[in-house]
Amino acid sequence: MAKKYTVLETWIVNETKPEESNSASQTYDRMGQQAAGKLPVIDVEQDFQDEKHFYDEARIRDFVAHLAGAATVLDIGPGDGWPLLRIAPFFKSVTGIDPSQKRVDGCQANAEKLGITNVTVKKLSAMELDFKDNSFDGVVAASSIEQCADPFQVLREVFRVLKPGGKFRVEFECFSQQEKGVTERVFLTETEESLGYHYVLQHHRPPWERNYLVKLSNEPETNKAFKKLADLIERIGPNPSLNPEVGLQFLERNQAAITKSSWYELEHFTSVTMKETLEEVGFVNVRISFSAATLARTMWPRIKESGLSDEQVKNVLQGLADVAVRLDAPASLGEPVVAVKPSNL
Ligand SMILES: C[S@@+](CC[C@H](N)C(=O)[O-])C[C@H]1O[C@@H](n2cnc3c(N)ncnc32)[C@H](O)[C@@H]1O
Questions:
Q1: Measured in angstroms, how far is the CA atom of residue 272 from the centroid of ligand 1?
Q2: DSSP secondary-structure letter at 180?
Q3: pTM of the model
Q4: Domains identified in the chain and CATH numbers
Q5: CB neighbours of residue 83 within 10 Å
Q6: Alpha carbon distance 146, 77 (integer Å)
Q7: What is the mean pLDDT of residues 263-279?
Q8: Is the CB of 287 under 6 A from ligand 1?
Q9: Could you tell me if the CB of 82 is within 6 A of ligand 1?
Q10: Spatial CB neighbours of 292, under 8 Å, sequence gap ≥ 6
Q11: Residue from 27, 98, 107 whose mutation best tests the ligand 1 pocket (most atoms within 8 A of CB)
Q12: Is residue 341 packed enough to be buried (19+ CB in 10 Å), middle (13-18) or exposed (0-12)?
């Protein structure tokens, strides 16, 4: 199906002539803290009365269970440290690579704050890893493979740096779960130099995403207009087609303050296309397997009333993860994938 261009997109392309960019420099280098500074343990104290903290602990236990027996682990695109800093206590050494300097700095600062000493964080793209062949016992990735410009090249690199017999556990934003058709949203960022108007379009099938960044000069007048826009988005929602006040109307009114723009496109996956791509790269025993977090959802109503201590909750989740690693999931549920590099290479 031919790609459709929205009215707002056409305006941005014609009026601002965006340069091609990538997710690391256009988006992740501009974000304040990742996950709005709410990563449990890393940013805020872990609290098992909070449902999300319970599922996040399950996700950590899932990575750890899949990589059982590994000593050296690589995390592709950990951002501010997820899952890198949380899985670090379970392995001899963990390495995180991310091309965004801001994320690398944030991750290193978080490692220091938490007193984690077996972690190395490098500014590097997964498309050109500078590690030797067969360097790591295991590799993990959370919502990062699909943020790279060439995911196929990244998966080839993951294969190359994994030791024979090593495992790769990959979580990703699964587009079989995506709302049908095109979805659109605007979000805003601010740095000292510029105000960032971000426009994101996602398409369910085939699964793709286009991102635009329109930069405006951070002058008092425009800054005021930006704050008003932020309030408006909060009140009426971020969809600029439904609400032109947060779309075309805002950009046209503030056109004189626009200094620069950029864009990038992403290819997204479903569990099936991730599995097939990993097989194409050479991985074996590639399985769509239940995340421990999905199983944990069924337990939450009982756990929250259980009065278990934090240690007991963690033990329950570790047990759940040890079971989850064996459970294949139906392709339609959008569960993560696990793959093995053949041991006879
Ligand atoms: C959605 S965030 C996920 C961060 C973290 N794994 C998490 O789950 O919170 C995507 C991350 O992928 C990183 N990324 C983008 N392009 C990359 C590339 N070529 N190689 C490695 N990481 C990349 C981004 O900088 C960002 O930190």
A1: 21
A2: S
A3: 0.96
A4: 7-30+179-267 (no CATH), 35-174+269-340 (3.40.50.150)
A5: 25
A6: 10
A7: 97
A8: no
A9: yes
A10: 58, 59, 61, 62, 65, 317, 320, 321, 324
A11: 98
A12: buried
> How many whole angstroms from 143 Cα to the centroid of ligand 1?
7
C-alpha of residue 145 to centroid of ligand 1, in Å? 7
Work out the mean pLDDT of the chain and round it to a whole number. 96
Please give the Cα distance from 340 to 39 (Å, whole number). 29
Q: How many C-beta atoms surround the C-beta of residue 188 within 10 A? A: 15
Using DSSP bridges, classify how beta strands 93-98 and 72-76 pair: parallel, antiparallel or unpaired. Answer: parallel
| Sign of the dihedral through C-alpha 332, 337, 343, 345 | positive
Q: For residue 151, what are its two tokens?
A: 């995911």
Distance, in Å, from the CA atom of 173 to the CA atom of 143, rounded to the nearest integer, reads 6
Q: Which residues make Cβ contacts (< 8 Å) with residue 126, sequence separation at least 6?
A: 76, 77, 97, 144, 145, 148, 154, 157, 158
> What is the 80 CA–ligand 1 centroid distance (Å)?
9
First to last CA, the chain: 40
- Among protein residues, the one with the nearest Cα to ligand 1's atom 27 is 79
CB 101 near ligand 1, within 6 Å: no
**Tens digit of pLDDT for each residue in 124-168?**
999 999 999 999 999 999 999 999 999 999 999 999 999 999 999
* Three-state secondary structure call for residue 127: helix
Q: Separation of 79 CA from ligand 1 center, angstroms?
A: 5
Q: What integer pLDDT is reported at residue 205 of this predicted model?
A: 87
Residue 60: pLDDT over 80: yes
Per-state percent for the chain, helix, strand, coil, to nearest 5? 40, 25, 30
Beta bridge partners of 304: none
Cβ density class 270-287: b for 16+ within 10 Å, e for less? bbebbbebbeebebeebb
Position 3 scores a pLDDT of 66
Q: Is the CB of 81 under 6 A from ligand 1?
A: no
Task: Give me ligand 1 centre to Cα 75, in Å.
Answer: 10
